[in-house]
Amino acid sequence: MIYVIGIGSGEKDSMTFGAWAALEKCDVILGYRKYVELIRKYFPEKIFREYSMREEIKRCEYALKISRENPQQIIGLISSGDSGIYGMAGLILELADANGDSQIEIKIIAGVSASSICASILGAPLMNDYVVLSLSDLLTGWEIIERRIRAACLGDFVICVFNPVSKSPKRRENFRRACEIMLEYKTPDTPCGFVRNGGRYGESCEIMTLSEIADCESELDMFCTLIIGNSQSRIINGKFVTRRGYDM
Amino acid sequence: MIYVIGIGSGEKDSMTFGAWAALEKCDVILGYRKYVELIRKYFPEKIFREYSMREEIKRCEYALKISRENPQQIIGLISSGDSGIYGMAGLILELADANGDSQIEIKIIAGVSASSICASILGAPLMNDYVVLSLSDLLTGWEIIERRIRAACLGDFVICVFNPVSKSPKRRENFRRACEIMLEYKTPDTPCGFVRNGGRYGESCEIMTLSEIADCESELDMFCTLIIGNSQSRIINGKFVTRRGYDM
């Protein structure tokens, strides 16, 4: 039995009771190093296995291997935010099928997404139709990402950006390019905001305009989530809010 | 003090510890009738006020009035899913500002969105870039909704549809029109799925193709969330999965 568990920010406050109950049942819990560190304090008696970034397939293969060899074992595969959004849920289902492990029970436990946590800290920017988009070009080609940025702007969607930058200089260039494209469609004063380490130790956030955020790429890292408003977004009493359209 | 609380499905399993702690602190909890009914059993000693659909402004005005008259009172404003996604978070911030109530502290507590709950039940359809779109034309004109459906298709986004239909025959017509538009861009065998009452009593779900879902509008109601795949979506071992692009 494999639980694929979204742990929200990694602090108990943003975990669900269902996620907690699943973690309590696990014999071994696998995850990216940083997120294992966050939850280890809540379950000091558990066995954890820490992995590096880009070892997603390795984690899943290990989970399937233990389940295959010892069907009694309960394995937890954790993702920050929601395990079904750029998390481990899809990959484990794909690999279980590819490996002929379809007898292994896999239960996906949804969590609070980074987009929701980020939005709640900034105000209420996701109150109208929105797009969730990753700027990571590891698994999706840049031409597709660029097409999606343009489509999101054409639809006047609020845009929530995951993985805005990484350590690679190429990705920082991509971020600047993404901002340039958005500025072709959206006004320079479109409200934007980003949150780093939302809902956990080290949280910080900033609200600014689209033209300003294009210049502050050096302030962003891979623990930031970014939201760019649509034509109905406003800064209201210091909060970033997208109007839903109520008559007031 | 006003807490704006996302309660997930309404069952404790999909609530966060933070949401629960906030509900425990409240002197009075306001919400749509159906969602009040779901959480009343957990807090039998609390005062609840039930509202009808479309009484969102009335709820917020009442919350602000109590806070203004009695700043000691702690008020909870609940939304199903995440309070920041088509929930009460934006409206209360807008109204507090419009009414000159900016001294009232308003804390948004993110929850597990219906899109995440729905995805976890169907499999892992939101593993790649996606759009969240409401088909309700009460607050957004149909021409804008139609433009957004086209943009979402142009970007090959997975599409998560809130409020796919309502009791109004006009809205059922809109749903059929939305499917027709998607069929202009996506293949008829694009995987789709919907979940009714996700994560709570009465949960049901179905996985099918885009051409099939276009014909089953009579099976949908306002408690359904719908997900339409992109070009990378597959049915894998009975689950609806969007491939993220890992080499396997």
Strand order of the largest sheet of chain A: 3-2-4-1-5
What oligomeric state is this? homodimer
Report Rg of chain A: 19 Å
Strand element count of chain A:
13
Largest interface: A-B, 75 and 75 residues
Q: For the report, how would you describe the main beta sheet of chain A?
A: 5 strands, parallel
Work out the helix count of chain A.
8
Return the average pLDDT of chain A rounded to an integer: 96
In N-to-C order, the SSE pattern of chain A is EHEHEHEHEHEEHEHEEHEEE
Estimated helix fraction of chain A: 25-40%
**What percent of residues of chain A are in strands?**
15-25%
N→C terminal distance of chain A: 51 Å
Based on secondary structure, the structural category of chain A is alpha/beta
Provide structural commentary.
2 copies of one chain form a homodimer. The first copy, chain A, has 248 residues and is an alpha/beta fold. Chain A is 34% helix and 25% strand. Chain A has helices at 17-25, 33-40, 56-69, 89-98, 114-122, 142-154, 169-185, 210-213, and strands at residues 2-6, 28-32, 47-51, 75-79, 106-109, 123-124, 130-134, 158-162, 191-196, 204-209, 224-228, 233-236, 239-242. Chain A has a 5-stranded parallel sheet, sandwiched between helices. In chain A, strands 7-8-11-9-10 form a 5-stranded mixed sheet, with helices on both faces. A 3-stranded mixed sheet of chain A has the order 6-13-12. In chain A, a hairpin with a 2-residue loop joins strand 12 and strand 13 (239-242). Chain A is globular, with a radius of gyration of 19 Å. At the A-B interface, helix 1, helix 4, helix 5, strand 6 and strand 7 of A face helix 1, helix 4, helix 5, strand 6 and strand 7 of B. Strand 7 of chain A pairs antiparallel with strand 7 of chain B, so a sheet runs across the interface.
